[in-house]
Amino acid sequence: MNEGSPRRKKPWKWLERSHSHPHLSEDRGRRAAGDNATASFPPSRTGSPTGSHRFVCQWWDKITKRPSPRSAGQFPNPEPAPAISSRRDSISVQTNQVDPSSLTDLAPKAKPSQDTNSRIVKAESTDPTNVNERIIDATTGVGGMTQVLETVQNIASTPNYQYLGPMKVFNSIATQIAEVHPYAKVALSVFTCASKMIIDQTDPDIAVSDLLKKVSDVYTFIMEDETLAKIPSMQALYGKIARQTLECADFIVHYSEIQSTWIRLGKHIFGETDTAMKSYMSVLDRLMQQFRDRAARDTVVNIHRIAEDLDFRDMVYVDCAGQDTSKCCLPGTREDVLSEIRDWIDNTGEDVPRVLWLSGAVGKGKTAIARTTASWFLERGDPGAFFCFDRTREADHRHEKIFTTIARDLSVRDSIMRRALARAVRDDNELKHTKDIIRQWQGLILGPVGVVSKAVAAPVLIVIDALDESGDTNSRKHILRLLAGKLDTSPSQLPANLRVLVTSHSLEDIDKALLTASHVRHISMDSDDNISPVSAERDIQLYISTELAGLRDVFKDAHFQTLARKSDGLFEWARLACEHIKGTNIVSRGPMPRFHELAETSAKGRNLLDDIYRRILIEIMPENTHEKVIPVFRSLMGQVLALLEPLPMTALTIMRRHFSCDVDHYDVKLLVGKLGSLVTGTADSQTSIRPLHTSFYDFLTDKLRSDKFFVDVSSVKSDLAFASLRIMKEGLRFNICSLESSYLPNSAIPDLEKRVKESIPAELSYSCRFWGTHVQAATFELSLANEVSAFFDGERLLFWLEALAVMKCLSGSVGSLSCIADWLTGHAECTHIGDAVRDTQRFIRTFGAIILHSTPHLYLSALPFAPTGSRIFQNFAAEFPNTPQIVAGHVVKWPMTEKILHWHCSVFSVTISPDGRRIACGSQDGTIQVWDAETGEALGAPLEFDPHHITSVVISLDGRRIVSGLRSITIRIWDAETGEALGAPLQGHTGPIFSVAISPNGTRIVSGSLDTTIMIWNAETGKTLVAPLQGHTGPVFSVAISPDGTRIVSGSYDNTIRIWNAETGEVLGAPLQGHTGPIFSVVISPDGTRIVSGSSDTTIWKWDAETGEALGAPLQGHTGGIYSVAISLDGRRIVSGSRDKTIRIWDAETGEALGAPLQGHTDGIRSVATSSDGRRIVSGSRDRTIRIWDTETDKALGVPAQGHTVPISSVTISPDGHRGIMSASQDETRVSPNPTRALCSASSFLQGSPVPLTQTDGWVVDPEGRLLFWIPDFHISTYFPGNTLVVPNDASKFDLSHFAHGNSWHECRKQKVAP
What we know:
Blueprint: H1 26-34, H2 54-63, H3 102-105, H4 128-141, H5 148-156, H6 161-180, H7 185-199, H8 209-222, H9 225-230, H10 235-253, H11 255-264, H12 269-293, H13 306-312, H14 335-346, E1 355-359, H15 366-379, E2 384-388, H16 398-413, H17 415-427, H18 437-455, E3 460-465, H19 473-483, E4 498-504, H20 508-514, E5 520-524, H21 533-547, H22 557-566, H23 571-582, H24 591-599, H25 605-620, H26 626-642, H27 649-656, H28 669-672, H29 694-700, H30 703-706, H31 717-731, H32 752-759, H33 762-777, H34 782-793, H35 796-806, H36 813-824, H37 831-853, H38 857-865, H39 871-876, E6 885-888, E7 897-902, E8 907-912, E9 918-923, E10 927-932, E11 943-944, E12 950-955, E13 961-966, E14 970-975, E15 986-987, E16 993-998, E17 1004-1009, E18 1014-1018, E19 1036-1041, E20 1047-1052, E21 1056-1061, E22 1072-1073, E23 1079-1084, E24 1090-1095, E25 1100-1104, E26 1122-1127, E27 1133-1138, E28 1143-1147, E29 1165-1170, E30 1176-1181, E31 1185-1190, E32 1208-1213, E33 1221-1225, E34 1251-1256, E35 1259-1261, E36 1267-1270, E37 1278-1279, E38 1292-1295
Parallel strand pairs: 1-4, 1-5, 2-3, 3-4, 37-38
Antiparallel strand pairs: 6-38, 7-31, 8-9, 9-10, 10-11, 12-13, 13-14, 14-15, 16-17, 17-18, 19-20, 20-21, 21-22, 23-24, 24-25, 26-27, 27-28, 29-30, 30-31, 32-33, 32-34, 34-35, 35-36
Helix pairs in contact: 2-5, 5-6, 6-7, 6-8, 7-10, 8-10, 8-12, 10-12, 16-17, 16-18, 17-18, 19-20, 21-22, 21-23, 23-24, 23-25, 31-33, 31-34, 33-36, 34-37, 35-37, 36-37, 37-38
């Protein structure tokens, strides 16, 4: 820089001492500068630098006057850039003439007078002509890189050029290198992305200077002659270096964010930084040395992802669905199809299909090809993920977790993907848990992959293996729609760099979806056009010769060829044949006799596999042992096949010890050890036992194929039910994972997952999760019912909930209990068990979230706050005396309001799906929201269609479609699972639509409108089937279709009801008259015999559907107009919702009101619906809420909430715990006399006087956020004894004098006296 020029700012922190890191010592600062005087570049095998740097590096050395590594072995100390004249003739350089061909052969082209290995700068004349000629020659020699010198000069004039220089030079020539080495384009793109990230960083931290220097060394290394020459033979390793460099760049650029995470976690920043950088630099050194040595080793790219791991830790993930390199193709086999797939992956053109479907019969080797492709792709350092379905693990519901799992695996491979994914889940936390795979695909895959595609021109590979094993057709329906391009996010619209490889058998639904998709490339392994028989036979022969290499003294190539021909292209048969030939189950039968048996078979295809399965099993179980051994085999394999997920040998043996018959109590190892060629886990007691190939499962369960070896899976269902219950009785216990404190949420326990694995063995974990399913599958028997009854009567019930909570499986408990309820149907002698089931379900629905959040509060909050009349409270509260005691105002019974769902605007219509799992609501702002009826979780984003409000919403009987009517005179049909709009809006009415209905068979839609007409539509085509139905003289507010689909009923503003022929549109009979006001709602009973109507005249009428006559007197009781009526599925009850803010339940026969009105809504109720089982009512109101009511709860449920009129916002306690707590609310503060009891040991968690305890979502916490206890919303008004103020007598009052909390929480349980 000239003296007269202004001083340039130094943006890089390490040019001056940083004061932002007080923990960094002065020695650290000196070392950051001094380390530049020591060699950090890994030495070559001779101890000296390798090869000449090529033209660019030479220019760099000379223009910047940098000492060569040979003369100095180092980069210079950090210092301001030397002044460089703007005149070219002032630059003193020496450069070699470069031949354009040198980029290909990469041999130095030095003049005879030069030492080609010398890197020492020699002084030369500064004649400008001489200098310019040499520069022009050099730039011409690399194919027109005319801006390189200017780039280098500009770089040399910037601060810290010794770090950034090599990166900027690399960026200027990367395109030219890619043209010479096209197979390295991906790695070069990654290098370019990493360098740009660092160069664009304006203010890096001094703490990462050592790592930045190492990255700079890498860019110098990759531009050396010797490195460039080795790229063709070391592509995978070159890619690894690129990926590790990108990880380092990510660490450098995002260091401040990483620091913040360390601070939050209480880590020592200096130590963590030093450890991370040493790890990064060590990996880079090893990779570069391996590249020099041409010796690729298994060095794993180091990834620092602590911040993102915090974001992903709760994301749903499927274990055991990933890559298994032991199942890859034998080297040298399947090369043709592998090459074809690899070419497809690397061709990132816009017109290349994004999806490739590899299909083929059982045993063709599809999985091996898929795994080999994934291994090749991942080995070269590219971001990819492998996901495998497995029919033996259907209980995993892998289809619901496919893209959350794939996204997490992709994040491990790419730092850009990782950060994009972290941003996605921060913006929408629900993405981590949603079962909506369309949302998963859009938010977790498309978005992040799109970010990657913009930064790096590298393919991203997703492998989905064995799609046919996902379960029934519904399990893969949406995956197929997505792959086939039938959603908005079709593969043809995917980023050009995304590749999806799918493998499966040929099944009807898969064929139908993918065969006709033009953008899906199909390779059939059953087609000679794709896989030639000669190629398949050659590959199988190579496989067989390798497997039988140890028997070369017995077999020759001709034998191997014979077996290959017999295989009929089935790799699985070849594997079994080799295992059979090598087997030693019978001493008298050697390899050659077995070979001849196999060679003589004439079977083909599937029969070929059946034949070899029979041969293997006969040898394991000879004829003379069948009577004793085959029953054991059937029982064992029945157990293996009937399990909802595979278990290891030890767990299987433990389960068998609890089977009903003593004869079944044997060690599984005695038999399974001989099945090594057929099942996994025979040599390892911790590996799950499952069929090695799906064809063996099919063989055993088909009696026509397996004959005497047939396995009847149903025969062990009862045994599995008994075993599961008894294992829980034996293994469950209080505080099973030894949780130390009740103050912490489960997420704050770093080793909780480890504790779960150590404390809950496989058989206990399995039993806790699946006992209900096994009981439901078993035939009803009283002895099993007694076992179930004992489960609910003992503390085992609470311990079960505890175990599920720490395993993060509590959400499945309601399903297990529903299985028990179904199993008990029709058995009046077990009514008490049914009551226990329902009580436990209600307990979980109320307290499940807080038990999952902090499991000790199952005992400290859920149990003591349960209603006193609940079975759980009555059975177990006395066993846990040292918990909060409610001494006044304790709710007696479960409130009828089971759940309140809050929405942002008025709700005009609600409906519940036939299976009771989902609730849909239509609202004032024109949106539809679908909710999980069990958890209250919103399922996906709202369905947005129209700014006018939704007047009516219905769900089809099969639960697949939602139909909505709007004030904007249109009707819309939606996919209930994906939320996708199906087809164009249905248009035809001339006025707003007030009501829609869908026929039981789902083929027709009926609508009623302000225009006084009714229209009938084809649900598939959207066309009207008949002319509009005319007859009403006022708007049609409500329509309904009879259960048999033959009649339509309508209610109108004209005070009448009309019945119509659903086929012809002809009106049937005279109008039904009796109401004195507009009719807002009509409904038909499930048996089709009655019509019920609700009117603004505040009455409900019942009508005979055949004669039109009124049945009895009107139902009276509401004080406002009735907006909605519904009938329970059994036809016994009528439910009505009114403008008077109440819901009433009526006896459908007598018209008598059943109990008091259901109160809770604060505005008119626009819609009511009942679940198919009649147990729940759903209501929607103008007060912006949807309420779920438990209809089986007694009408006198609970004590009406009094005291505060809104939930408590804070409470305060004195630090000594003896001056009491005052409750405060947004409405007003209540006070009462001071009783004698107070919180025990309050000083252990409170500091200062007085201390406010804030309440968030029901949690009472201290100023440090530690959890004290949780108050359910039906205890709205709360008073804590110990106050000096006065509160109403009916408020809830707590005695906390014996409350065991914090580190002593486990003392809440009554001490058991040892027998």
